[in-house]
Write a structure and sequence with these properties.
With about 160 residues, the chain is α+β, with helices and mostly antiparallel strands. It is built from three helices and ten strands, in the order E-E-E-E-E-E-H-E-E-E-H-E-H. Strands 1, 2, 3, 4, 5, 6, 7, 8, 9 and 10 form a ten-stranded antiparallel sheet that branches.
Length: about 160
Amino acid sequence: MEIERKWLIDGFPKGLPIIAQAAMRQGYIATAPAVRIRESTGEAGTTYILCFKGKGTLAREEIETPINEELFRRLEAFIGKPLVTKDFRVYALPGGEHLEVSLVDKGLPTQFFYAEVEFPSIEAAHAFVPPQGIGLGSEMTEDAGFSMSRYWCQTRLEE
């Protein structure tokens, strides 16, 4: 189960310690339910993931499994569209949570930043109060139209 809150933001936050960063590429085989492939390259190397995501906003089922590079490349060719890129960074928040921030499709007219915080329970998600001064913009958690699979449809399938 994935439990997370999401925000649109204006850029990478300043003054927070960076825990990790990666360059990501992802694409969708299906969007309802979401079936996604992701390549993530960071300090520890490159990983390839096949992910299934159910319906929901704050909480939804998520199943991830590692795949090898060969299968990733075959699925990428099967999709036949340019993958979404992400400049991904994870920051430590004062309360111990992690703020995950992505710059999506840098350099394209559709580029945008968003942030997520994942939680161990729905109660913890509801209790979370974002720290002041880190620049979280509009909260998009309950907006069912704010998802990477929707962005995929709008920018890759409706061309």
